Amino acid sequence: MSSISYAPRINQLDATLLDNEIDKVFQNQVKEVFKFCPPGKVDKWQPEIKALLKILIWSFSLRSKNSTFGQQMLDLHYDNLNRKKSILFLTLKLLPEYIKDRVIDNRTISSYKKMRKLKIYLTWITTIIRLLELINLVSFLHRGTQPLLVEKLLNISSISTNPHKPRSIGYSYMTRELLWHGLMELFTLGIPMINYHYLKQKIRQLWNYRKQDRIKRSFPIMNESTVCAYCKEKPILPTHAGCEHIFCYYCLQANFTAMKMLLCPECNTELHDCDMKNYVAILGPNTATIEDNNLL
Length: 296
Fold this sequence. Notes:
Blueprint: H1 9-33, H2 46-60, H3 62-65, H4 69-73, E1 76-78, H5 83-104, H6 107-110, H7 113-143, H8 149-154, E2 158-160, H9 171-190, H10 196-207, E3 239-240, H11 249-258, E4 261-263, E5 270-272, E6 277-281, E7 289-292
Antiparallel strand pairs: 1-2, 3-6, 4-5, 6-7
């Protein structure tokens, strides 16, 4: 390939990625059109719909202009593409994916015993094709031409439509991506190390600050209107830890796992993990509750 028509590697790879993204955009638009249809009516025809979209995209791009939409965005086109090669390009790109969607990934067909061997053979063929694509990609990084296996088979290459026009690269986008990934790594490492139960308790303590001369100890009484003092729902496995309020076992245990002391959200009493007890109600004329002294 002459230096005049040379197409940079990055442009060729980006053209392939743009073609894949354009294909996904059309598929998502079709899903939006049929999203109100009854479930299962359109899903069984997904391979045919994807194949039809690829044919339409090919008809308005590669068949008429010798370049895909991704190549047109980056001023590229195929230099030696004729009508026969164009049809073969569509067939080699469309047929393997259609067979994969219709036969390999189709559970209804694969459930028949006669189709199991065919599915195994097609799976092996798909694996070999993926391996050949990987080898071709490594070869492309060395040669700088034909990043796709189908281009290698048809002996077609991308060239620049306007070789004197340099590609402008916006570093602002790259900077945003680097900052975003850096922040994501920071949050991924830092967020699990934050004790939210402790922070929540401190904020509640500052918001509802009041001095306690002594810690009041009382026994809770549970009835039909009792809710968990922490989650405000019906208590699941009711427990208490020294004040008159009932907690869910998991609400109280989760707080005591994060810290040994908890301020009751209702009465601001200091609750300690060593005082955590199971609540057992006994119906009787003189006794309302009984305490289980065994810690959970």
